[in-house]
Amino acid sequence: MAERRAFAQKISRTVAAEVRKQISGQYSGSPQLLKNLNIVGSISHHTTVPLTEAVDPVDLEDYLITHPLAVDSGLLRDLIEFPPDDIEVVYSPRDCRTLVSAVPEESEMDPHVRDCIRSYTEDWAIVIRKYHKLGTGFNPNTLDKQKERQKGLPKQVFESDEAPDGNNYQDEQDDLKRRSMSIDDTPRGSWACSIFDLKNSLPDALLPNLLDRTPNEEIDRQNDDQRKANRHKELFALHPSPDEEEPIERLSVPEVPKEHFGQRLLVKCLSLKFEIEIEPIFASLALYDVKEKKKISENFYFDLNSEQMKGLLRPHVPPAAITTLARSAIFSITYPSQDVFLVIKLEKVLQQGDIGECAEPYMIFKEADATKNKEKLEKLKSQADQFCQRLGKYRMPFAWTAIHLMNIVSSAGSLERDSTEVEISTGERKGSWSERRNSSLVGRRSLERTTSGDDSCNLTSFRPATLTVTNFFKQEGDRLSDEDLYKFLADMRRPSSVLRRLRPITAQLKIDISPAPENPHYCLTPELLQVKLYPDSRVRPTREILEFPARDVYVPNTTYRNLLYVYPQSLNFANRQGSARNITVKVQFMYGEDPSNAMPVIFGKSSCSEFSKEAYTAVVYHNRSPDFHEEIKVKLPATLTDHHHLLFTFYHVSCQQKQNTPLETPVGYTWIPMLQNGRLKTGQFCLPVSLEKPPQAYSVLSPEVPLPGMKWVDNHKGVFNVEVVAVSSIHTQ
């Protein structure tokens, strides 16, 4: 083997892959540590850098103070320094919709609650920027502005921008070939030495004063003058505009935050009349979205009973507050669609017998036959009077119906009148809904269903309509849940509706539907606060109904709102021993364990007190596993403690009057603590029910905890389903 030369012996034979493997193993692939390999100097390659060594970040403010900008006063300083007069803070009074500001009544509040309330009541702090319009964020460089700025500018074309013409390009190539043939004829074969090419080349323009001695200041001044000559006033704005789909920045002056409202609908309940009038009937309205399977508004309770019927309940009902006498309501719909229904539910005083037996007189007796059936009607009135006197504070489900809202809106908008009268029936064969004009209008036409998209669902411009609902469906004791209601509503839109084959309850409910005015008079918020333009407190009010949007609405909170909605859903006492068939649930909001600790924070329904300490669910006669459809609205205290809780007490109501038999017998208890780890406890619950009263200090524990010595229904299994929903601007969920 030949002997290696001296310089080759110094060449390292280490393979590159081995070097990479060694480095990656030593520094674990850290880019920051690998960077240290490039440092040349006093640091030895054997020195190791600890992986846990943290580098302090640069204090920007301190750096700017210790390193002042070394720029003389001039035009460039405006590009570097922040303008001292750009920002101005102005305080503007906050506009309040209500006569009284929505703040809690408590004097002592948690710090976070106090901060939230202060943010909802303080004046607006508005930051005004004088020069924001000069930036591209507020003044985007659009294509139209580009064309406007470029008017009058000479078009500059560079060699690289010119596309070669096919014919000219080929001629230039041929000429170049002919000229290059002379290169070989020259003695040295160089193009520079080619006499032929030198003769054909053109001289460059001479540079005047090239060799003259000129001061540097004079050269700078001349260059500055040349730069300013014909200079565009918005030089930087001539830069091509960015792609609209990928903007670098988009800034806009924000609007003053305000309370969110969807499209608003005014519903006035005018009258409710049955073929026979023997007892008071209680009604409620709510909006449902069938597609989303969601209730999209709270309940609106109204009372259309005569004074004679109201008099039957005076022993059980306290004097009515003016806020509970409303007969008109404003509904808000953020996402209107073809799937929204206005559902009307009716209840009556509890009496002995199931729903079918109690509804039978309303189906068979007619107003025209009142004289012929006088004795039977008197007997029914006497029985109703007895039940009102004894069971006046309990209710039972009675009937329901629904109005396909968008059909009515689209039909009213197409009629050539300022207002229309529409009669809605559920017994027509041509469709699930029909419309008949009143006697001043001739003819009948079926109400066609609209099939257009959500863009056509405009609730702000249709003509007001007066509806007459003529038929109601009898409630079924085993089909009271919301899931059953969604099935019924979906079935209503089919031509072969099963509901149309049912025997209806004949009635006349007259309702006005119209777009809500922008500033209605005598209006109450969901918290029962008077909206401005409320001249007289004795006038029957209009209620704003709180919306539960079908989908989330991302807007900031601007007002104090702290409401809780409780929805008892079902109870299963099939395995409970003893008599418990006519079951009602009493709901109370407690601040302690003592029975006197019930708080008067439950909103009243209709023709009653404004707030009460308890609310009862409707009774399904002789049903050990009833469904419920109640909505119980609670005004939450601003400050909650671990002792605040919802208490549910289950009672068996004795419909028959017997000796030594109490009217109501407690058959179970359960509860929901309001706070869990400092947060509001909401959602779906399946709770066990205790047969005995809860022990002391039970409110801080969950009923799922097996308390010693307590007896539970069905071996401590969950038998009571309830949903709790919070609408709060101070409590997170």
Assign an overall shape: elongated
Q: In which range does the helix fraction lie?
A: 10-25%
Number of strands: 28
Could you please say which CATH topology of the domain at 263-412 and 458-545 applies here? Immunoglobulin-like
Let me know the largest β-sheet: 14 strands, mixed
Q: In a few lines, what is going on in this structure?
A:
The chain has 733 residues and is α+β, with helices and mostly antiparallel strands. The chain has 15 helices and 28 strands.
Write a concise keyword list for the protein shown above:
alpha+beta, four-stranded antiparallel sheet, DOCK_C/D_N, C2_domain_sf, 733 residues, Immunoglobulin-like, 14-stranded mixed sheet, C2_Dock-C, Dedicator of cytokinesis protein 7 isoform X6, guanyl-nucleotide exchange factor activity, 15 helices
Describe this structure in words.
This protein is of the alpha+beta class and 733 residues long. Among the domains are: 83-132, no CATH class; 263-412 and 458-545, Immunoglobulin-like; 562-728, C2 domain (Immunoglobulin-like, Sandwich). Helix content is 19%, strand content 23%. It is built from 15 helices and 28 strands. Strands 3, 4, 5, 6, 7, 8, 9, 10, 11, 12, 13, 14, 15 and 16 form a 14-stranded mixed sheet that branches. β19 (602-603) and β20 (611-612) form a beta hairpin. It is elongated and about 135 Å long.
